[in-house]
Amino acid sequence: MIAAPEIPTDFNLLQESETHFSSDTDFEDIEGKNQKQGKGKTCKKGKKGPGEKSKGGNGGGKPSSGPNRMNGHHQQNGVENMMLFEVVKMGKSAMQSVVDDWIEAYKHDRDIALLDLINFFIQCSGCKGVVTAEMFRHMQNSEIIRKMTEEFDEDSGDYPLTMAGPQWKKFKSSFCEFIGVLVRQCQYSIIYDEYMMDTVISLLTGLSDSQVRAFRHTSTLAAMKLMTALVNVALNLSINMDNTQRQYEAERNKMIGKRANERLELLLQKRKELQENQDEIENMMNAIFKGVFVHRYRDAIAEIRAICIEEIGIWMKMYSDAFLNDSYLKYVGWTMHDKQGEVRLKCLTALQGLYYNKELNSKLELFTSRFKDRIVSMTLDKEYDVAVQAIKLLTLVLQSSEEVLTAEDCENVYHLVYSAHRPVAVAAGEFLYKKLFSRRDPEEDGIMKRRGRQSPNANLVKTLVFFFLESELHEHAAYLVDSMWDCATELLKDWECMNSLLLEEPLSGEEALTDRQESALIEIMLCTIRQAAECHPPVGRGTGKRVLTAKEKKTQLDDRTKITELFAVALPQLLAKYSVDAEKVTNLLQLPQYFDLEIYTTGRLEKHLDALLRQIRNIVEKHTDTDVLEACSKTYHALCNEEFTIFNRVDISRSQLIDELADKFNRLLEDFLQEGEEPDEDDAYQVLSTLKRITAFHNAHDLSKWDLFACNYKLLKTGIENGDMPEQAFTILCDILMIFSHQIMSGGRDMLEPLVYTPDSSLQSELLSFILDHVFIEQDDDNNSADGQQEDEASKIEALHKRRNLLAAFCKLIVYTVVEMNTAADIFKQYMKYYNDYGDIIKETMSKTRQIDKIQCAKTLILSLQQLFNEMIQENGYNFDRSSSTFSGIKELARRFALTFGLDQLKTREAIAMLHKDGIEFAFKEPNPQGESHPPLNLAFLDILSEFSSKLLRQDKRTVYVYLEKFMTFQMSLRREDVWLPLMSYRNSLLAGGDDDTMSVISGISSRGSTVRSKKSKPSTGKRKVVEGMQLALTEESSSSDSMWLSREQTLHTPVMMQTPQLTSTIMREPKRLRPEDSFMSVYPMQTEHHQTPLDYNRRGTSLMEDDEEPIVEDVMMSSEGRIEDLNEGMDFDTMDIDLPPSKNRRERTELKPDFFDPASIMDESVGLI
């Protein structure tokens, strides 16, 4: 059980007095029991502590006789039926009638009614305990709470506010509604009786201080909703006081003869009573604010902190004269640094309600200047919802005063229109539109009805183009358009204006668009047309196509009609004007994809269709750019729709064009392949350009009737004979071997076994030789073009991309066991030398091969080192310098290889042992011709092999050492010359840590599990058997011959069926342009959270935060530039008393107080986290 500590009684709220109902209450004073005596005169004296209950059991009336009754339900043995909780939980009854019933019960016997209300809060917390009448009369609040804590069900962490299910989803709203209605119905009398409210506030304050989360959460919510209801009451009192004051001033200003003295007395009495009521409300609100809010707004639970911030925002918005000042705004400002997104979100939504009202701007000036930078930084919050609300808040700040945000602040928001997350981008788009596009000059009012270039949108379109170009993200026009689509639809759909800016000459005094600006405008225009026709965000912005509503479908059809009617006429003109510009033409040719082709017939626009087809034909003849030709092909494909009557017209035009291209290609190819003549570059260019045009149409159209295979086969055969296409042939061969490998039988397709083809050793050698000759080459060897000039940087990158594809194709054959794994040795040995170019591919290949066969992979690694060692011997001879860079490079490569085995020595035990075995055999393989007194020729290889000694288990080191001694003679062990140093160092590496073998294995096994064990836990017998089994096997292994080493080596491994790989030849085509989501995310990555040093929030007072809880406040920005500057000082502060303002007629606007945002001046010991 969790026992709550005794709560100090900080609030002296209860007073033994009789309840009084004023004349304006909604309820009658039953039996005349409750009479007001000196209301307001003695209320500040003689108040009891929160634990001292009034002994007037029924509020001064006669005690009830017989069984106690509450709302018509029996109460026996002091334990009452929780009817109030049940009614609120079901939520079926009208809340006002529930409250009215309780008020009637309170009038009859206030102690029993209060007991029901107390148990209501206890049961709403999920506690099964019941506060009895005896406990209520004789126990302090702290004792009652401790008793309820002991009866709390600690096996379940759920309570009504957190429970799932439809019944509990509505409970929170019903709970909050009950509290609001209770205060509203009691606002004229009962809340001033200094009994009901004092008891409730005292109870909620104590519960909010509990260590039980359910009590703390429920009571904080109740207290905050109670405070909100009291704020509403205080606001009504303020309004009534102002009205009364006005009436009094008006009556007093009358002439003496017409002045009604009795009315003046009544008004003075009413104003006095209202002032007394307001003082009472102030006391209640101060008690809740100091007793609950200032502690719980920093609670360890995020939901509790969020409740506090949400409610204080309501107070400031509802009663701004009293609460909208720096004394309360500071809490919102500090909490914007909270580590939980839901709390930061509540801060922003609270501020939005304040900034939305422009009349409150003057009260927010200091807060804005102090916390503006934090709000701007929150636009990059790791929680997208928070980022969206931060941008919306800045939009409201912008509308209230444009001078507040600097140009740098605005730029931080501008670039978010390119965000991949659509809500963030849309919010940024609205900010951008409000800042740059929503202002209209007064001079434009007279030209509102003008269209085209003279329309008011013309300057706005230019502004959009300028912004797009200055953003330097030219491939993301679709993202920019989508961001502004909701707020600037009228502007973005003004295609007539855009068309006029492109076709018409500039007006006198108007500056014409530059070529770059025209290109940007065409791209933006294309994106707006695509968005209107498709009605969904660009790729990477949406979760999929949604179902359009009837209204959206009608808008889509209307837009397509408008687009077709305008651009069916304008597009041929635009193509004619920009026919030589590849970029502009490529974008313009995409427009027909969004046409309603039926309009060509219904609108009698056939002549414009003919003009379009002529322009497309001319563009095909002029351009050889692949993008332009593919755009022409797609346009023909879009227009050649058999459903429309224009099909025949377009089909004839397409056939004529392809006829000409095919005839031209056959003629040029025949001349090109004539024997005895050397073709020049012009002929080759003509053949290539014509073939590119045919290829573009072949991708989208059926060209089988033109019989292009024969002529293309001639060209291909000639290229093969001349050896002009080795890379393409290699890639295709790798893909064919992959297709017809044993992988073809995966998935239960054994019937395809006859199709399996395994390359022989000669073919594997040829493939490997090709890789070594064409991939692992020096950069300078591949940098010279045919004319001997240096290629530019883009060409180098393209060449590297092709070489990487070749290497990837061969490595896939290794990974999928199509070729022998040992062929990878020639690849692995290049790991260090070509790390920058191919390091990722080689490392991944190592990882995959190790998953297939750890031992064979280890043998391949040692083989690669042996090959490098032999190459060094061939170059430098056996008397090489072991300090040379070549030998050091081999040792470094061995060290890198050793690191790839990881930390789990048990998993790689056999592989490492086999690696050492092969290394030892290689080192002693070549005896020295001069005799045994001289070291073997490859002995220096042991120096390289020692890099792997650290990966051996301790008992395995002894086994390997025994195996090493088999190759050593007695004279070798006595040698100490420098040439024998590799042997000595390798022996020492095996002898190091040779003791305590058993502990080594046990620690190796246990390292994968938990390091914390119970004192009573027993050692696992299973693990002990594993260890003993390994030791026995190694003992037998060391005492036996080489049969053990060879048996594992000779084990056949079944080829592993892995996922079918992607064919390399399909990605050997020219790389496509990056999609918006690809390139954008590389520019604006959403980084992970960077925690700064947490601030000490608990320097005073007791903390509710568990030991494993993180600090509440920290920097949650995704940008490392975000700093917490407002919280670097200590968090000690003085809690301000709630002081409701005097009536508006008697006061003037006060100046802002000193800087309450300075944390050093606003906290004291009473605000610690309790």
UniProtKB/TrEMBL annotation:
InterPro entries: ARM-type_fold, Cohesin_Scc3/SA, HEAT_SCC3-SA, SCD, STAG. Part of the cohesin complex which is composed of a heterodimer between a SMC1 protein (SMC1A or SMC1B) and SMC3, which are attached via their hinge domain, and RAD21 which link them at their heads, and one STAG protein. Keywords: Cell cycle, Cell division, Chromosome, Chromosome partition, Coiled coil, Nucleus. Residues 234-287 form a coiled coil. This is Cohesin subunit SA. Residues 36-48 have a biased composition (Basic residues). PANTHER family: COHESIN SUBUNIT SA-2, STROMAL ANTIGEN. GO terms for biological process: cell division; chromosome segregation; sister chromatid cohesion. Residues 1-75 are annotated as: Disordered. Its main location: nucleus. Component of cohesin complex, a complex required for the cohesion of sister chromatids after DNA replication. The cohesin complex apparently forms a large proteinaceous ring within which sister chromatids can be trapped. At anaphase, the complex is cleaved and dissociates from chromatin, allowing sister chromatids to segregate. Residues 293-378 form the SCD domain.
